[in-house]
């Protein structure tokens, strides 16, 4: 992506975040003839993945290619995009948007599509192989690794659910309790694991075994090695919602992080501010994020249209 100089200091809409949600919103806004700016820090959540799956007509496409096509599409409608980071947004008659590289712009409406970061379990080797043979979502990657020997690394007793789900894609699944005591699992958990054919291994995991740049096993603290070629983990989601919090948006604490309270179109409790994608929830996949950006944009187009008509009536 080439750098662009901003052609104006005032936009109808500033979209914060250039992933699937932000680009989808920008596409709709551009086609509605709204002066729109996308500020993209260039840190998509799915960057470690070689391909994205489950998006009709785009199944298997590399995430970087998907975003590059999206940037080309929004440019056709006059949408501007800059590689920068929004450091603050202040409310007023317009929103004042401060940029990390200096200066800022004004906007009548804001879309926050800043996503989230995945914080990996503190096990040697896990972070470096995430998106390759260390995975987190069977819907995203299960087909590609089907029937391989799976390991599932527990971060909490809730890891049982992940172990049961991935057993749909492989009959050879080992559930490593790591720092979870077996007593923390319910009788129903243990019976379900047994019914699914999932082996349960107590004890702490010391790290992964990698040979010739390929995952081959899971090493326990006692030195035992279990042969595995894929390991599923449950990263701790860290929503990038600082801007929304500073704007005073109502937030909701969930087991997967704190997210803004939004209506069906992504409108937050702050008038004029919408949110979409992983900024509103942990389970928003690419296809959901694109849909959320579209819904937010259509709502903004209607909101701005009514505001302009009401202003004309008042004048």
TrEMBL record:
Q: Where is the FAD/NAD(P)-binding domain?
A: 11-291
Record's superkingdom?
A: Bacteria
Q: Per its record, how is this protein called by name?
A: NAD(P)/FAD-dependent oxidoreductase
User: Catalytic activity annotated for this protein?
Assistant: [thioredoxin]-dithiol + NADP(+) = [thioredoxin]-disulfide + NADPH + H(+)
Cross-referenced Pfam families, in alphabetical order? Pyr_redox_2 (PF07992)
Annotated InterPro entries: FAD/NAD-bd_sf, FAD/NAD-binding_dom, Ferredoxin-NADP_redctase_2
Keyword tags: Flavoprotein, Oxidoreductase
Q: Which organism is it from?
A: Streptomyces tunisiensis
């Amino acid at each position: 992506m080439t750098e662009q100089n901003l052609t104006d200091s005032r936009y109808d809409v500033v979209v914060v975040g250039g992933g699937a949600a932000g680009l989808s919103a920008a596409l709709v806004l551009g086609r509605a003839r709204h002066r729109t700016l996308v500020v993209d820090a260039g840190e998509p959540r799915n960057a470690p993945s070689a391909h994205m799956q489950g998006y009709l007509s785009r199944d298997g496409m590399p995430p970087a290619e998907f975003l590059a096509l999206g940037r080309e599409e929004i440019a056709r409608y006059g949408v501007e995009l800059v590689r920068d980071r929004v450091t603050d947004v202040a409310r007023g008659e317009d929103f004042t948007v401060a940029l990390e590289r200096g200066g800022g712009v004004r906007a009548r409406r804001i879309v926050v599509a800043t996503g989230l970061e995945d914080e990996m379990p503190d096990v040697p080797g896990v972070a470096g192989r995430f998106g390759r043979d260390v995975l987190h979502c069977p819907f995203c990657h299960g087909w590609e690794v089907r029937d391989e020997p799976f390991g599932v690394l527990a971060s909490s007793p809730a890891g049982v659910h992940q172990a049961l789900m991935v057993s749909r894609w492989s009959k050879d699944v080992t559930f490593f309790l790591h720092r979870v005591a077996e007593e923390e699992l319910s009788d129903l958990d243990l019976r379900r694991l047994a019914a699914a054919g999932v082996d349960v291994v107590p004890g702490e995991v010391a790290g992964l075994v990698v040979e010739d740049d390929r995952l081959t096993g899971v090493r326990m603290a006692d030195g035992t090695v279990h042969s595995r070629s894929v390991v599923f983990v449950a990263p701790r989601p860290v929503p990038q919602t600082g801007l929304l919090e500073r704007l005073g948006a109502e937030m909701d604490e969930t087991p997967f992080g704190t997210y803004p309270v939004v209506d069906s179109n992504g409108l937050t409790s702050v008038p004029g501010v919408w949110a979409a994608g992983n900024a509103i929830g942990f389970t928003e996949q690419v296809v959901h994020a694109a849909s959320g950006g579209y819904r937010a944009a259509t709502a903004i187009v209607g909101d701005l249209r009514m505001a302009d008509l009401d202003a004309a009536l008042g004048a």
